Amino acid sequence: MSAATADRLHSLNTATWTFDRSLMVQTQGMGELYAGRCPFYLIEHPDGLVAYDTGISRELVEDPESYGPFGAPEIADFMPAVDLDAGQSPAAHLDDLGYAPGDVDYLLLSHLHTDHAGNVDTFADAEVLVHEEELRYAFFPDPVQRVFYLGGDFAALRTAAHEVTPTTGRYDLFGDGSVELIPTPGHTPGHQSLKVELPDAGTVILGADVALLRAGYENELAPSFNWSLEENVRSIRRVKQLARETDADVVIHHDEAEQARRNETMKGVCLTCHGTAWVDAQFDRLDRTIVTTNDATLAATRILSRAWEQGLARGLDRGDSPFNEAIEKKWSEQWLFYANSTRYAAAMMGGDYGVFANGRWYLNKNIQEMIDWMRTAEQVWEGTGE
Q: Are residues 67 and 152 in the same domain?
């Protein structure tokens, strides 16, 4: 008798969120920026339509101060790093696939961080399954995690508006082994990954944030802001063991392999009009540009770090925003505008290329202006005798 399977798995993106790589893989790539996807997944099964995670809320990104019952001003400084143009809302993705939100029977949540639970209210008719430890922790998390738990995402789960099933242990959704929640605590207390059986791909494990990037998974380097580093490493090892036992493909939520697969898809589009040599050259140029813009961003980050260390700018360690002072604004311009526009230029041809390529000049100009700011601030500091 053949094993039961789901019919199809869709990986759909709601946005990208750019972070310093060292926040995603501990001790690795400090100053190197990484634009991670904020996906949600849709699983078609003979016994029901299943969503896993919901991505980030567009309402939050566009107006964090007014988000949810209490607003979310604490996360406002992070929102300029979210690119909504890189994805769509879950409702828009569903529409593209010929579904409506009301067609979703089950909503499974890996955890309740805002980039995973940002559109729960879209699925008011679905049964919501979330680990009971996650439900408890989300309403009063530790300080290091508090900024990622927002009432606007999940407060409605405490009302009659949603049917909520708290899970404990492994949870076989349909009782046939085809869609199964796997507890993987560490990133948060109630984090859970999802095992899906597919007719052609076989076993797929959607790791969610058991690791944020492939390097973190392979090398067992959990992010420092996790609820428990020890539990997270244990969970990574359990997923690896399960993958060995089932010959599974492990998908890491924000992982680089996803970007590689998207590159191949984009190349396929280009190849409909251009030759292989031309397309490969275009992507090589983009890869080189990413390296040089990362280097320029890292240089700016090191200058700003020195300003904070010397007390010439306040920064997060002194309870201030990292975007207030002149040198901090130069730093945010470096990675948010000039580095990104230069990368955009490298992926283009035609008249727009010359316009956006000017970002290279601004990248170097910004570094020099940050150095000049530092020198002036040091002279003023010395002159006051402080």
A: yes
Residues 217 and 117 in one domain: yes
Single-letter amino acid, residue 255: D
Task: For residue 269, give the H/E element and its range.
Answer: helix 256-270
pLDDT of residue 1: 38
Q: What is the dihedral of CA 39, 209, 47, 99, to 10 degrees?
A: -10
Q: Which residue has the higher pLDDT, 44 or 288?
A: 44
Q: What is the 3-state secondary structure (H, E, C) of 125-188?
A: CCEEEEEHHHHHHHCCCCHHHHCCCCHHHHHHHHCCCCEEEEECCCEECCCCCCEEEEECCCCC
List b or e across 117-132, with b for residues whose CB sees 16 or more CB atoms inside 10 angstroms: bbbbbbbeebbbbbbe
Please state the pTM of the whole predicted model.
0.68
346 or 132, greater pLDDT: 132
116 shares its domain with 224? yes
Domain count, the chain: 2
What integer pLDDT is reported at residue 351 of this predicted model? 47
